[in-house]
Amino acid sequence: MSRRDELRSGLRRVHDQVEAACASFGRDPAEVTVVAVTKYFPASDIRLLHELGVRDVAENKHQEGAAKREECAGLDLTWHFVGQMQSNKAAAVARWADVVHSVDRPRLVAPLARGAGERNEPLAVLLQVSLDPPEQRGDRGGVSPEAAPALADDVAAHAELRLRGVMGVAPRDGDPTAAFERLRAVAVSVRETHPHATWISAGMSGDLQAAIAQGATHVRVGTAILGNRPGR
Ligand SMILES: *Cc1c(COP(=O)(O)O)cnc(C)c1O
After folding, report:
1. Can you tell me whether residue 133 is helix, strand or coil?
2. How far apart are CA 151 and CA 87, in angstroms?
3. Which one of 34, 161, 201, 227 has the largest count of C-beta atoms within 10 Å of its C-beta?
4. Ligand 1 mean position to 215 CA, how many Å?
5. Residue 156: what pLDDT?
6. With a 6 A CB cut-off, is 222 part of the ligand 1 pocket?
7. Ligand 1 pocket test: which of 13, 45, 82 has the largest number of ligand atoms within 8 Å of its C-beta?
8. Alpha-carbon distances, residue 182 vs 137, 167, 171, 188, 194 (angstroms)
9. Could you read off the pLDDT of 23-48 as tens digits, one per residue?
């Protein structure tokens, strides 16, 4: 099978899953954006995905993302950053990414706004909320649910940033539904003060149905579309 055919069937499978989940949970598939997580895969795959209709791609490392965006110049793609962010890279990420899913502490906000100030339009920002039990927090990043509203206010105070919602990664073991319910509760409380923060980025290859059941507007899917990641 050619790489193009592999990607086409991966995409079809994922869209079928999204549609089935939407049908079961009374959601409109048009409300759910599939973001293809292309980390570790070459820019040639991104070009093929674009030919197959993909318009949202995600990377988790600053250098890799910036380089691929350069290689894919001219393609109408929205670039998402989903990796853990270092504060000394935040301004640089804001120069190439269109959406940052992983803002999880106040220290990132000013440098992100500084980098975003060099763009033509505000940078879309999601707060990454930790869905891990308190004793495991920090492992994969994420603001605690309790601290999320204050961080939301901080982001919203910067004109260069546009607070769009929240993001979460389900715990490695445990019930994704319970985790995504917690994320949804945080989303609701953030939206009370910030009505435009309507996005919920939740769900990956293994748990996208549970995420859609809990209101996900963006699912971040790597393996189910592109296969196992190379070189790890
Ligand atoms: C890699 C990654 C994904 C995609 O994971 P798959 O299991 O390959 O679908 C989603 N979200 C984040 C934050 C990631 O780093």
Report:
1. coil
2. 15
3. 201
4. 18
5. 98
6. yes
7. 82
8. 15, 11, 12, 10, 18
9. 999 999 999 999 999 999 999 999 99
**Which of 38, 154, 156, 165 is closest to 100 using CA atoms?**
165
pLDDT value of residue 202: 98
Amino acid at 184: R
Neighbours of 118 (CB within 10 A): 10
Ligand 1 near 10 CB (within 6 A): no
Q: Is the CB of 169 under 6 A from ligand 1?
A: yes
Q: How many CA atoms lie within 13 A of 168 on its CB side?
A: 36
Residue 68 is encoded by which pair of tokens?
Answer: 């691929």
Under DSSP, the state recorded for 61 is S
For every residue of 137-196, DSSP letters joined together read TTSS--B-GGGHHHHHHHHHT-TTEEEEEEEE---SSS-HHHHHHHHHHHHHHHHHH-TT
Tracing tokens 């000013």 back to the chain, one arrives at: 110
- Whether residue 129 is predicted with pLDDT greater than 60 in this model: the reply is yes
What is the chain's mean pLDDT, rounded? Answer: 96
Residues with Cβ within 8 Å of 167's Cβ and at least 6 positions away in sequence, in order, are: 82, 101, 102, 126, 127, 128, 129, 200, 201, 202, 218
Instruction: Using the atom order of ligand 1, give the atom closest to the CA of residue 82.
Output: 13
Pairwise CA distance, residues 206 & 117, whole Å:
36
Work out the burial of residue 102: count CB atoms within 10 Å of its CB; fewer than 13 is exposed, 13-18 middle, 19 or more buried.
buried
Over residues 54-92, the pLDDT tens digits come to 999 999 999 999 999 999 999 999 999 999 999 999 999
